[in-house]
Specification:
single chain, 335 residues, mainly alpha
Length: 335
Amino acid sequence: MNTRRRTAVLLEVLGIYLAGQLVVDLLVRGFGASLVNPLGTFTVGISNAELITASGQFLTLILFQYAGWFLLVIPINWWDRRHGPGAYGLTTAGNSWHTLILAGVAAAALGALPVLCVQLIDAVHHLGETAAWRQALFATSWRRWEFWLFTAVMSWALIPVLEELFFRGYCQRRLAEEWGDGAAITGTACMFTLAHSQYLILNAYNVGMVVSLLTLAIAFGIVFAWTRSLVPSIVAHAIINVPMTSYWQAICLVVFVTVALIVGRRAAAAVRHVWHGATMRRCALLSVVGTAYVTAARHLDGAAFIAAGLVAAALALQALDRQRRRAARPVLPSA
């Protein structure tokens, strides 16, 4: 019985990850919208007016993407009796805002050490090329509010909320219900990491960034599982995504190392608590499945339609499990 429920939950999460694109396509047709990814044409010489236009284009694109996911997630959660903001981690879970924000800062400090090291090493010794739009973004002028508007939309203000809401608030939380926190964290972290396709270029810099991003994703997952609130992971994610020059990255590295030394023991206790009862087999299984699924989806025609079938299979298994549980309930004698 537990195996059936675990299979259903895994199929649901994997299916929704890709089937959301089908919903996006329907929304685009219904609204007559035109989605444009401005990153494909981003250049060093981009003007202020073009940055404003690009901000609007990226905002529209990302809102449609997440609408596609949550127009599937919300009805399924409602059907499975998970209602309200708390079902997605949008709660303080009984913690003070002060505690949650500090937990977010601590998660950023511990999780960001590898990525800061990679970026600082790259500033001294070039480790390899990255996506063209990233190189152009960091080479353009930062001394204009239009640049910060654009990065707010695509990096440090909107994206941390939406990515944490989907990957931690839905994917990790849903997997944790049947697979446990440890396996859910590792499986979701692998999917989250590979979703950032700008780092899937084979050179030293991007390999370092993939490993660093995986570390970050695990840190976000741990702090969410520990607090049961998305606030800390959103705070940590936002801190990491703020564009910084090498000078400020070096300062952050010193600050983060100091914070890590201060909170190290409490962080270790949180990790032990979150991973209590987790098995290596489940963690490895979800990690491998998540990695293989996201990787294969990039090269498989019709992947979104296959994913829709996975969602349908998941719902069928859940309905069957619910029916069997109802049938197994003892019938009370009538008075």
